[in-house]
């Protein structure tokens, strides 16, 4: 037996195995998860900021970072939602009578969310509403936000973070996803309506953005551009 030959063969095999391992370690995450990014900014000419321009700019930066994070996107890898989340064409309401596919996948939701990479939204910042935190109709690039409602809803977050969470939610309406109902039964301030969270994409996105934003704020996460 030629020991030196078999030793070098073993060495060669080891080297190939090691190279394959490194290659698969590098490639595998890219195959299972492709992170995408979006940059939301406000239209400075047509927006109405109630003298809170700097805070609103920060909110858009935080919202862009939230939506672009792997933390956020990975949530939707294996989720399915009812198809009615799609808005009726040209309207601001859910497609309740749709007769096609019954579900829309998290992947389809992410495709809608990232169909544009640079988006300029006009924001109308108002003081208070009786019911909502904000309002957006699909494809209008226009969102209304009620800052007193938003602050009251997320009292533990700084203003820019709370507005950012709301922007993430509202942007889902911009890309064509609507609510079936606006009635949610939340057990307390820190937990969503279970049915709404399970079925309503925009509601789900709002809560997940809230959880991530809270974690980032508590951990002093550095957000580029902020
Ligand atoms: Zn909404």
Describe the structure.
This protein is of the alpha/beta class. The protein has two domains: about 30 residues; about 180 residues, Collagenase (Catalytic Domain) (3-Layer(aba) Sandwich), CATH 3.40.390. The strands form two sheets. It has a four-stranded mixed beta sheet. A hairpin with a 5-residue loop joins strand 5 and strand 6. Helix 2 packs across helix 6, helix 5 crosses helix 6 and helix 6 runs antiparallel to helix 8. The chain starts with a helix and ends in an 8-residue tail after the last helix. Bound molecules: zinc ion. Zinc ion binds next to helix 6.
Task: Write a compact overview of the structure shown.
The protein has 226 residues and is α/β, with parallel strands linked by helices. It is built from eight helices and six strands; from the N terminus they run αβααββαβββαααα.
Name the features.
226 residues, alpha/beta, Collagenase (Catalytic Domain), 2 domains, four-stranded mixed β-sheet, two-stranded antiparallel ribbon, globular, binds zinc ion
Spatial separation of the terminal alpha carbons: 67 Å
CATH topology of the largest domain: Collagenase (Catalytic Domain)
Into which percentage range does the β-strand content fall? 5-15%
Quick one: biggest sheet?
4 strands, mixed
Provide the structure class.
alpha/beta
Tell me the overall shape: globular
Going by CATH, the architecture of the largest domain would be: 3-Layer(aba) Sandwich
Heteromolecules bound? zinc ion
Strand line-up of the largest beta sheet: 1-4-6-5
What is the helical fraction, as a range of percent? 40-55%
CATH C-level name of the largest domain: Alpha Beta
Order of helices and strands: HEHHEEHEEEHHHH
Tell me the number of helical segments per DSSP (H or I, 4 or more residues long).
Answer: 8
Q: How large, in whole angstroms, is the Cα Rg?
A: 22 Å
């Amino acid at each position: 037996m030629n020991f030196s030959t078999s030793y070098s063969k073993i060495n060669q095999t080891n080297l190939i195995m090691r190279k394959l391992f490194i290659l698969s370690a590098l490639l595998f995450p890219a195959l299972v998860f492709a992170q995408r990014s979006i940059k939301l900014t406000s239209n400075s000419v047509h927006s109405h900021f109630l003298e809170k321009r700097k805070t609103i700019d920060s909110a858009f930066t935080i919202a862009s970072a939230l939506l672009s994070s792997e933390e956020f996107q990975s949530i939707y890898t294996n989720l399915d939602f009812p198809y009615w989340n799609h808005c009726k064409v040209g309207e601001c309401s859910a497609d309740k009578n749709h007769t096609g596919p019954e579900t829309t996948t998290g992947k389809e939701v992410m495709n809608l969310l990232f169909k544009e990479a640079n988006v300029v939204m006009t924001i109308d910042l108002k003081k208070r509403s009786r019911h909502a935190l904000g309002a957006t109709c699909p494809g209008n690039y226009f969102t209304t936000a009620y800052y007193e409602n938003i602050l009251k809803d997320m009292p533990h977050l700084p203003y820019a973070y709370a507005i950012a969470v709301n922007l993430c939610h509202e942007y889902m309406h911009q890309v064509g996803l609507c609510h079936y109902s606006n009635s949610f039964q939340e057990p307390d301030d820190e937990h969503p309506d279970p049915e709404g969270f399970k079925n309503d994409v925009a509601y789900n996105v709002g809560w997940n953005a809230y959880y991530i934003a809270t974690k980032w704020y508590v951990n002093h996460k550095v957000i580029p551009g902020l």
